[in-house]
Amino acid sequence: MNRPFLPFALPEIGEEEIAEVVDSLRSGWVTTGPKAKRFEADFADYLGGEVQALAVNSATSGLHLALEALGIKAGDEVIVPTYTFTATAEVVRYLGAHPVFVDIDPATYNIDPAAVEAAITDKTRAIMVVHFAGLACDMQRIIAIAKQHDLKIVEDAAHAFPSRYQDKLIGTLDTDVTVFSFYANKTMTTAEGGMLVSRHPAIIERCKIMRLHGISRDAFDRYQSKTPAWYYEVIEPGFKYNMPDISAAIGLHQLKKINRFHEKRCLMAARYNAGLANLPLALPPMPDNINHHAWHLYPIRLTDNATVSRDEFIIKMAEQQIGCSVHFIPLHRQPVWRDNYQLQSSSFPHADSLFQNVVSIPLYTIMTDNDQQYVIETIHALL
Ligand SMILES: *Cc1c(COP(=O)(O)O)cnc(C)c1O
To answer: What angle do CA 89, 211, 256 make, to 5 degrees?
Structure first.
């Protein structure tokens, strides 16, 4: 086989990103500084300017900061979907609180609002939603449930930049905090990094302090300020979650390209939808408007009449030089959550059945039309 291996995911890094990183390296200011500040301002602008944004060194850090700022503490319960990456649940444990896992809606693969409602107890303090693959959750119902039971909402928007719920961008809804990820394989990258967004100034203030050791002003403010540069006050045992300028340098230019990236992803999703119709597989859940989906992932489900199992499908695709992946191994199957919370697959029938036959096929901006055509043809030949 002459064709080079087509990886499951690759970032698109241009000369602008490279030059900006080099500029940071030459400037002497490599950690959090002017570029991180500009990246935050640009990101908030992109979301329409009614939110504030804090750059962090991962979405996981951002989710931890969010729950801490909302006052989640030991013994509290936070509702999370089982169909997510472990980061969503682990941050709840960082605070000594307990994740309460719920099933998904099989029509969307997102957290099922009815399951959320059924899981509420007098210890529940917050709901974490995950916009799986980049498709927004049923936020109208989630927000209504949260208001009715006086619960906070944190959006794990690791897949959802940019996604829209109805006509509003994720990050601008009536929730408490939204956190985006810029990990290498996400819809834009800073190598490692994330952005925490909120419309509530008090939450932003708390997250900002806890992001850097519980210090009341960050290093760059000190550098700029008229008061003595060496003076600071530590008011909490905080964390070390700031984004360095070397990462923000990448993010500044990725953000400028995000609309082009998104158009390409939508175009590719439409091509897969057409090219993979009429096969023994289910196409991904679709919003009313294809452009409202971020298309971070393109998860297909092999149906019962498929001639290969999911596992065989992935092996055979790899033999044809195509990388695939599985999103996700649900958390009720991961030893730490399964064993500590005595979780059983039968309690999560929709997530468990999705896991058995789902596969994510490659979709990223530097794939060529020819690459995508090859993926489509290979799937036809396999099925
Ligand atoms: C990638 C991912 C995260 C973690 O993002 P990091 O930036 O790597 O911390 C969290 N939640 C979901 C659903 C993810 O896919």
So the answer is: 90
